[in-house]
Write a structure and sequence with these properties.
Blueprint (H helix, E strand, L loop, with lengths): L28 E6 L3 E6 L3 E5 L10 E2 L9 E6 L2 E6 L3 E3 L2 E2 L3 E4 L4 E4 L3 E6 L8 E5 L11 E4 L3 E5 L6 E2 L7 E6 L2 E5 L4 E3 L2 E2 L4 E2 L5 E4 L3 E6 L2
Parallel strand pairs: 2-13, 3-4, 14-15
Antiparallel strand pairs: 1-2, 1-22, 3-5, 5-6, 6-9, 7-8, 7-10, 10-11, 11-12, 12-13, 14-16, 16-17, 17-20, 18-19, 18-21, 21-22
Length: 221
């Protein structure tokens, strides 16, 4: 899913933008629209539910267009690892899940008869994980991958990046700080037209611009 995503020619902040987070950011979700890279669902909670596109609460955090129950399974971050807790038919690495099982980098998760995801831990220096789509099933609001963010999320050209931006020369780090989602980089970046000399908080609708490209942060309601 590559393209410009309608950012326009100027990095003007969205009107009515409000500070992200607060003391507890769990359960919050955002979409990162990255020019010429793709769209990514950023989940900040320790528990991220997976399910089908059933309308009405409680909808899954990642509601896939597939024949799944409303709350089919959850991926839970606990301590230094993750596990899958299944409420309906699920397998991890080809083995049926009975209640819950630990997840390791590269594990394939199958939900129901046909939904397949791959669980990734791109770097050992961060507890942030990523879910890649193996089958053709996507959320109704299509994204290229789901990021399960612990404290940091690396955007950059390296294989250890949580979001691989192959055309970039530099890295941008998203991180939590005092209940806010912030970003910083060793290269020059601008947040809503303001030069970020150090770590800078983001708001719903913030546009971050660097020499390599731009991305926009949008809260999921």
């Amino acid at each position: 899913m590559q393209g410009n995503f309608g950012l326009g020619n100027s990095a003007t902040p969205a009107t009515g933008a409000v500070a992200l987070g607060g003391a507890d950011m769990d359960g919050e979700r955002y979409i990162l629209w990255i020019d010429r890279v793709g769209a990514f669902l950023l989940c900040l909670g320790e528990r991220v539910s997976l399910g089908g596109p059933v309308s009405g609460p409680p909808a899954a955090d990642v509601a896939l267009l597939a024949n799944l129950s409303r709350q089919h399974a959850e991926i839970v971050r606990s301590g230094e690892g993750y596990y899958l807790q299944a409420a309906a038919a699920a397998t991890v690495a080809g083995r049926m899940v009975h209640e819950q099982t630990n997840l390791a980098d590269g594990n394939e998760i199958q939900l129901g008869e046909s939904v397949k995801l791959q669980f990734r831990l791109p770097t050992i220096i961060s507890g942030t994980a990523r879910l890649d789509f193996v089958s053709d099933h996507r959320p109704s609001r299509a994204v290229d991958a789901v990021v399960l963010m612990e404290d940091t999320c690396i955007l950059g050209p390296g294989a250890d990046s949580h979001i691989r931006c192959s055309g970039w020369d530099h890295t941008i780090l998203l991180h939590r700080s005092s209940g806010q989602l912030c970003c910083k980089s060793r290269s020059d970046i601008y947040v809503d037209n303001q030069h970020a000399k150090s770590s800078m908080p983001l708001t719903d609708g913030s546009i971050v611009t660097s020499i390599d490209g731009r991305f926009r942060l949008e809260a999921v309601q």
